[in-house]
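Researcher: Re-running this chain for the archive, since the previous output was lost when a drive failed. Same request as before.
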Amino acid sequence: MGSLLAELLLPKVAGCVLVDRFPDGTEVSEDDRQVSPVAALQRLAPVVRREGWRESRFALVGTTGAWRLASGEDLRETPALAVYSAGTFPDVDGERESLIRWMADLRSREGVQGVVGLASPALASEIAGATDILLVATPYISRDSFAEVIRPYATGLRPGALYGDVLSLKEQPLAVASEVLPKSVGIIGLHPLFGRAVVDPTGLVVTVAPAPDGRAGVRWERWLVNALAGSGLLLTPTSGAEHDAAMSYVQALTHFVLLSFAYTFVRANQDPTQLLPFRTPVFEPLLYLAARVAALAQRAPDVYRAIQEETAHPELRRLFVDTARLLLQAIEGNASAEGALQGQAITASSTRTLERSGESIPRLVELLEELGAPWTPEYHQYAEPYEHLIAMSNMLTDRINGLRYQLLLSNGRIRGVQNVRTGMMHIGCISIDPQHHDRVDLASRVRFRRFNLTLGALEGEGEGDQEAAPTFLGSLPLAQAELVADDEVLLWLLEHTGPRSGRDDGRGGSGQGGMRPRYAGRGHFDLSLVAPVWLDEESVERLLIRQWGKAVYLVWVDMKGQIVPSEWIPEGGRAVIFRIVLLITPQHLLELRRASRDRVAGMVNTVERNQEWDRRFAELVKGELSAARNAVVDWLFEHGGTELRRHSQAG
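Model: Regenerated structure tokens:
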């Protein structure tokens, strides 16, 4: 959690030091729970890329004092973004410098826009002395052990500095900090209610708790709160006691329930992903949440152990188990309520046997009706909380179900599918079998038959059965997929493909055609004419770029003035060369390919049939582009364009 806060704050500070129990080298054993400095630096790398820091480098410095970059370059000759020291420092000009002086020197170098330091706790006092804000992210085990952790920093913090922690427990750690830290140091308790699995923390919550001893605030407290809010986070003011009581439900109980759910699959030896073809609107999000918590708990068991052991109300876990036992007894026909709901008062109405028209109601029905839910109108004046939670539950899978809906509507069509994580574009025919979606599924992946841009055909088409064979299917995780609008696919084709043949001055196609895939539906032409002076670049962009014919689009036009004798140009005009790129949509291109195939279906010789197929396809494409070209020329003439004629001179 400490490095996660560092990622958010790094762009806003001059320097940042992460202090951890790093080993002597840059590697850690599998049994050692300590954080690898290499891993910590890798986690901060996205910040560097996002902020666009130029000439920045990650530097790793071991205990030998050797200057070494991850790239093998010499640190003394390279601006550094991150520095690691395990208790010793490099020898610079014969002097043993401190980490703080060393970082200050790095910040002063040209090209360095941010510095991150990683250090051992042995440097606590020295680091604290040069720190305005100190954030602690160590687990809380006991009052004494936590006091020992923060005491070295307390001796070094300057008056006016701010101490904060990001622990999942608040009341006791803040109380210890108030006892150890001098009154001149500000105290704030933070708890980001999200983890590293979150891609974008915008809109997520950070709780903010003040010092329990009522000490005066410091200016850095307001700065930190504003910095977090400026990062798109939502802040929830609270006290330590209120926070811990809430976390007993929000974290400890929730994780306990989800881990129990996830581990049931493990113990039953059941792969839950095999059940996704049978998914319901309740099962699917619950499975995702349980799988997420179980995976994170496996990676960081100490964190999830602390959440359970440090909870303010451990009795909630027992109450959950007892409630589950009560429900189980009712389901199995045991109407006895003995031992049920321990620790919670049971109302008279919840223990009686209900009767309707003289008929006894089963115990399970009684439980479902009587226990109800704490947000029903029986407990609140209005039904809004109930309606709110039901509506929000539907939103958990709205995005993914919306994508599934779009994919179903696109089944059998050529669409662009973008990987939102990598930015890679895939163009293919969406492949879904609604009756066998467990094979070509929408449970967790989107599958598409790859479209060959150069041939204008689906991969494998014409090789026997027309159904998509698995070898020709592309696949993308559903959570990373996004359908791209057709006009955006055309712009992508303009940028990333070259012409069928010859020179193309369109964006992406000129001079680099050999490095880019050829697109069978791409055509271009130059047109020299006299255009009215009002037809400038902006007018062309607004009026001329449009659809021509059935599915042929003019996607790019460039106007270049040309120098000709003035007598060739009529008044109110100018000589212009239009350089124009036309694109046939992939869907229409596929239709042309299939139409040309149908015309040669009767041919026996395979080689001759394929050659004739390609020839007829090229003719159809040429005809479509030619018709579109004529439509463009007609439009230009209709809007004031005239032919550029050489006038004969008298004499």
